[in-house]
Amino acid sequence: MASIAVLYAPGTNCHEETAAAVERAGGESALVHLQYLLQGRSHLMDYHAAIVPGGFSYGDHLGAGRIFATMLVAKLRGQLAEFLDAKRPILGICNGFQILAEAGILPRRQPGTRAMALVENQSSRFEDRRVRLLVSQEKSMWTEGLEGMILRMPSAHGEGRAVIPESGHRTLFQFTDAQGNPTMEYPDNPSGSPDAVAGVTDETGLVLGLMPHPERASMPSHYSQDGLKLFQNLVRWLKR
Amino acid sequence: MTIQAVYTLSKDDPEARKWLSFFHRHGYARLNQLIIERVYWLEGEAEVGNLLPLFVNPLYQVASDRSQLNPENGPVLEIAYRPAVTDPETPSILEAARALGENKLEFARLSRRYQFSGLEEAEARKLASRFLYNKIVERVREAGEVFETLRPSGEPDAVDRVSFEGLSDRQLEALASERSWYAPISQMKAIQAHERAQGRRHTDAEIEILVQSWSDHCYHTTWKSLGLLNLLSQATRRIAHPLVVSSFKDNAGGMEFYDGWVVTIKGETHNFPSAIAPFGGIATKHGGVIRDTLGFGKGAYPIGGTTVMGTMDPRIADEEVPVGALHPQMILTESIRATAYYMNPMGIPMMHPVYRCHPGYPKCFALGHSIGLIPAKYALKDSSEPGDIALLVGGETGRDGIHGATASSTGMTGRTLEKEFAAVQIGHPITERRFTSAIPVLRDSGCIRAVTDLGAGGISSAAGEIGGETGIELDLDLVPLKDASLTAWEILLSESQERMLIVVPPEKLQQAVEILDRYEVSHASIGSFTSNQRLQATWRGEQVVDLEMSFLWEGCPIDPVSASEPRRTLPAIDISEPCSQDHWESAIEKVLSHYHCADQSGAGARFDTTVQGRTVVGPYGGRNDRMPTNLSVLAPLRDKPYGVVTTLAFNPFYGEINPELLARLMMIEAVTKAVVAGTDYRNMVLCDNFYTPRITPEIAWDLTRMVEAIADLSVATGIPFISGKDSSSGTFEAGSEKINVPMTLAVAAMGKVPDVAKIVTKEFKRAGNKLVLLGPARPELLGGSVYADTFGQRGSGLFDPGDAAAVRCVWDKAIEFHAEGQYVSGSAIAEGGMLLRIFEATMGSGLGAKIEFDAQTPGRRDGWLFGEFIGSMLLEIPPEAAQTLSRLKVSHQIIGQVIAEPLIVFAEGGKVIFQQAASRLESLWGQTFREVLE
């Protein structure tokens, strides 16, 4: 069975529920401390997919996700390249998305070259909201079979406004209003993210960055189980 | 040593925009632009170019080796930590620089340069000192300053040996005041006698330890003198509830959960620091109560939290704010910002954000709870054994919070703002987050014999507590300092946040260190446990503390407090019943837009409510996620149906009329809120937090009645209190005027349910269902209600649901109904009465409600709608089940029905007397709090 690494560092605070969601979807999860990778006690290629979960890694010092991303790029660039070349999937949720962007993994798969950023919400506040996400028609194994659907899940962050200076990214999720139309209206679009961007993928569709939290909508006692579908798609894809 | 600098600007800076509009609101209209430039000061032969990716993201930031601010555009103030203090970011920067291969970066500091276009420099300095920095730890860096090194520097004061010998009472009093000891004369004399008996002078460290350990905050002198301290714990012992695992002895209380787990609860107030420096005060309120969870047993994990604030009305004019107090709007907005700042990075879901106001709160009420989860086998601490290691983990020790315990035990004066800012601590959630992850791992590896948090009184208090039965010997030179100028007593008393003290068996030390290193948690073995029952400490070769534990813990003289019954002469309410559509409309709008009833999600939506993935019911719910639930349900064990239900009751009005009844009502309200959701009160425990004015005979009388009342009710209903806290310092002095807080008691209830799917929520479910008020109603009793408050009246008649048997009877019936699935929605009556529940249930469902009175309905109609019948509940019952209601032996009324149209309608004898669209009411309800925050 392919194992899915859930990476965490000081300040990460969503790794346990993310690992639980992976297991709930039938996957096998492994909590991997960033220090283990840095010290060489563990290697990215030991895992068939990687998830960078939410939180405030390193206190979000110097910028959301900045230090975690610096570590990845400076110390693990080779492993990352190998992982990307091997076409293994990566998911960044919330702070994890910020890390993937800071590291240049999204949207262009070029560690060390930043091509997008997630900056402070227009409200200058942390926004805790239940959001609706429209899944785009773009191809990605993460959303296979979900195209055009509206997924409901919680969103909770202070820096989620996507700044993407050049084209070339692929929007996979957009915040929508109650009618299911992509929206710039607050609070349906809690960050004021341009073009209602809530999640993007790379050219291969294997790397996904998503601001809302699918792991918090993954079991019957959650108000929605839509998030589980993403983890199920990952597990299905790995089995192929 | 080379010192280089990197200056960065953001291309788009919402934070600067937010401050600009904040300053405009605070009267700085001439400020036309605010720019914030960040500066990184770097010491060592590092190649700065290689570090730039760390400091700037070129997509939205620009960097330069010199300031990018043009001085002609207005005064620039650079704010930085004082030289003796380290930035929280410094370790992160050094670590990341090493990752980038820059091993020669030796130290880093940060500062922020603010440019205030449109203001004179003097004005800018005043504004900055009021809002932008805390002068105890930060300062303005003047232009042209040259540094030789960035490393913390400064020399500590030598140890002082103080003699009380021969001092008169007056001299002792003067000494206590001069040293900010705040010790009453009886304590000063006890220390004087102790000096004589031991035949040597005390060191400053010893006296500081004694007065802080004997402060009301730590020693509960007021409650002890009134004989109240053990009343609730005795009641709990009498109940001998099988689910109680730990009550009152530990840092939190514990209740048996399912599958070998225990859930814990603790509530802590942080009133004084929050009143003088709300941001720091509230951040550390959360940090502190979370550490109480981590310090339960051998270390519980925090799974939920609350924030409860009582301030003056934030809408009052500046001149109505007592001299020396902060404006309540500032306390409110800063408290919200601080709760987000601390709780979100901690990754702990917010369960109950509650904001109330009362003119008696210039010294605000600032309460936070923490709920924890721990395997039952680790719920009780082991005793420390001689030879065990005292391991200090977490942050470094600095000058934070010196004199916090003694200052928080006193009243607050107009001068306090100036004088005691040092008592307010600085919080860094990332440091606490690190050991929050590590402690359960240490625990499960057998490395923890006992653990406690460092709070009021710092190392001295934690060491004295945890080594109370054995003795402990500390070497203060081993304590990691962030401020090199700290002297011995300051190291011992510092309340630097984010520190825990762990008792580690010596053979487990190596393993503990490995685990802590893995989680990047700083640690230091600062001493060991002995068998001589003494608290001992050395510093720079000197014995600075050598006190017997018995004197520390039992030597405090308790001053007697007399009690006498206060006279209350409150007039009855004088409000005429609404008699037209317009009158009704006005009455309803006033209640729904009242601060206590209005939509508070403007605060609540800034807090993460779903992190950890355990949330079943958060603070808001219903169709559009705006409906306040007044309920929290968590499912702590992953993929198991078991739930922890928590509810809260806090009312600042009732105590003015009848403090004893207030106390009972708070307990009943909290329990009823959980019962109506489907929680059996026999599976429930309670947590109390008192906040009362400085003691007088009248306050003593009321306080005693309050504690006795809930102790009795606890025994009579069988619901035990398992933790709590008292604060008897709710008095603000502005000149000759004394402002007392209202007699305040907040009660939290925590229950367990076997299946969260059976929880019943508030929003209406189906048109045609009957609305039933279960429990007693006395429409003529509007005293203390929000409705009366909208007329500026308090009243004298407070609703009383009756004795324990009567209250239980309603609960029992609700539990029976719930088990039979008889009701599909429900809510407990509280502030705003039945009307607020109906409105919220309407909003949460998109349905409407029609309330029908007829000739048989006794009493005033406004009393039915707005009366706060604590202990009663509004239930939605399908029509077929409603037919059997007449057999009920419990007081109940069918008061109307759910309708399909989103309207709120009242009818009298079939004739509509009021009708309004719920959506119109919703917009009014949403306005109040938003206006306060903007």
Overview features:
heterodimer; A: 240 residues; alpha/beta; nine-stranded mixed beta sheet; 25% strand; B: 934 residues; alpha+beta; 39 strands; globular
Write the layout of secondary structure elements.
The complex is a heterodimer of chains A (240) and B (934).
Chain A: E1 3-8, H1 15-24, E2 28-33, H2 34-38, E3 49-52, H3 66-85, E4 90-93, H4 95-102, E5 117-120, E6 127-135, E7 150-157, E8 159-163, E9 170-175, E10 197-201, E11 207-210, H5 228-239
Helix pairs in contact in A: 3-4
Chain B: E1 3-10, H1 14-25, E2 33-44, H2 48-55, E3 61-64, E4 76-81, H3 90-99, E5 105-117, H4 121-132, E6 138-141, E7 161-162, H5 169-178, H6 185-198, E8 202-203, H7 204-213, H8 216-219, H9 221-225, H10 231-239, E9 244-246, E10 253-256, E11 261-269, H11 271-276, H12 278-294, E12 301-311, H13 328-346, E13 350-357, E14 365-375, E15 389-394, H14 404-408, E16 412-413, H15 416-419, H16 429-444, E17 450-453, H17 458-466, E18 472-475, H18 488-493, E19 499-504, H19 509-518, E20 523-529, E21 534-539, E22 542-548, H20 549-554, H21 581-592, H22 601-604, E23 615-617, E24 620-621, E25 627-628, E26 632-634, E27 643-650, H23 654-657, H24 659-676, E28 684-691, H25 697-717, E29 721-727, E30 731-734, E31 737-740, E32 744-753, E33 770-774, H26 786-790, H27 804-819, E34 825-828, H28 833-843, E35 848-853, H29 861-866, E36 873-877, H30 879-882, E37 892-899, E38 903-908, E39 911-917, H31 918-925, H32 927-933
Parallel strand pairs in B: 12-13, 16-30, 18-21, 28-29, 35-38
Antiparallel strand pairs in B: 1-2, 1-3, 2-5, 4-5, 4-6, 7-8, 9-10, 10-11, 11-14, 12-14, 15-19, 15-20, 17-19, 18-20, 21-22, 23-26, 24-25, 26-27, 27-32, 28-32, 30-31, 33-36, 33-37, 34-36, 35-37, 38-39
